[in-house]
Amino acid sequence: MSVRQTIKRHFKIISLLQKKAMSFEELQDEISVDPDSIEEKLLTSQRTFQRDMLDIASIYGIEITSDKSRNLYYIKEDVKDESTQRLRENYDLLNAIRLSKGMGNSLFFEQRKALGTKHMAGLLYAVQNLLVVEFEYLKFWDGSLSQRRVYPISLKEARNRWYLIAQDENDAVIKNFSLDRIENLNLTRDPFKPIDYDVEKEFETSFGIINGTEEEAAKVILSFTPREGRYVQSLPLHTSQELVEENDKEIKFSYFIRPTYDFKMEILSYGDQVKVVAPVSLQQQIREQLEKSIAQY
Predict the structure, then answer these.
(1) Does residue 110 form part of some domain?
(2) What span, in angstroms and rounded, lies between the C-alpha atoms of 125 and 156?
(3) Which residues contact 249 (CB under 8 A, 6 or more apart)?
(4) Domain boundary among 148, 167, 197
(5) CA-CA-CA-CA torsion for 234, 235, 241, 242, nearest 10 degrees?
(6) Which pLDDT score is estimated for 87?
(7) Peptide bond into 259 cis (omega under 30)
(8) Angle at 264 between CA 258 and CA 265, to 5 degrees
(9) Does 56 map to a domain?
(10) Percent of the chain clearing pLDDT 90 (strictly above)
């Protein structure tokens, strides 16, 4: 059986089990009436299916298990495991892209710059093996390149971009480097000692990627219009988000967060659909920023 057939069979099995739990016989029945599956000859034996289950778990991070009492197979969900959820989401996107091929304008993507994901495998290897990395880094403010030599600590996602968290060898300061601005990456063989830096703890009260600033975490209360509030309720601004009040005039949320520059910009992006209730200091900063914006006109 060809590699193409194996991959297509994996996609078909996952697609069917995402809908509902099925027995091996039911899976084969579904495959046997699908024109594409018939053409590719995807029907298989129980033994091959067992091997497929192991391969699917290894390749896609999707675990298929069985309910022996009902003789059914199903996809095991782990809602607490962020990496497993992301693998599932990426599989769904990959499958959608595959299905949209040759079907006209059925799937549209935002036009954006590449995320620098080509660097991820190498940087992850360096993180796990404590190896120094070197690269050129593009500065946004003047477009120049600077040579960097750093001790990689972790990779972090923030607002649809990926960043390298690393200690700069030049000044020993821990910094964030956007992967899409890294060029000429070089993984050295030079080892470094483990760095005592808890990324999860350090960014726990941060919004986005800005960290290490003077702002102290504080309780922030935002009041949204009902329309925007429902949107924010479905897609929280921060992990600390809690519903405070909801009525036909407003929806209030509380946050325990550092009011950094990027968080203020997020608030401003909602325009007249949001109001800072507390603290007063943040309310004043947003007011001043709005006044400066008005002065531009």
Answers:
(1) no
(2) 15
(3) 226
(4) 197
(5) 0
(6) 66
(7) no
(8) 135
(9) yes
(10) 46
Residues 6+ apart with CB under 8 A from 152: 123, 126, 127, 131, 133, 164, 165, 166
Q: What is the pLDDT of residues 217-234, one digit of tens each?
A: 999 999 999 999 999 999
DSSP state of 150: E
Determine the pLDDT at residue 34. 75
Residue 107 lies in a domain: no
240 and 190 in one domain?
no
Token pair belonging to 83: 């990496």
Task: Assign residue 8 the CATH number of its domain.
Answer: 1.10.10
CA angle 130, 136, 139 (to 5 degrees): 120
Q: What is the pTM of this model?
A: 0.70
Lowest mean pLDDT among 106-110, 183-187, 221-225, 271-275: 106-110
The count of C-alpha atoms lying within 13 angstroms of the C-alpha of 36, restricted to the half-sphere facing its C-beta, is: 7
The more confidently predicted of residues 281 and 10 is 281
Same domain, 44 and 70: yes
Q: Is the model's pLDDT at 101 over the cut of 90?
A: no
Task: Give the mean model confidence (pLDDT) for residues 89-99.
Answer: 68
Residue closest to 265 by CA, chosen among 218, 207, 196, 188: 207
Say whether both 243 and 193 belong to one domain: no
What is the average per-residue pLDDT within 262-280?
A: 94
- CATH number at 288 reads 3.30.70
- What domain range includes position 121? 117-197
Q: How many domains does the chain have?
A: 3
Do 93 and 121 share a domain, yes or no?
A: no
**Mean predicted lDDT score pLDDT of the chain:** 86
pLDDT-above-70 percentage for the chain: 85
- Does a structural domain hold residue 250? yes
Q: Report whether 40 contacts 2 (CB < 8 A).
A: no
Which of helix, strand or coil describes residue 56?
A: helix
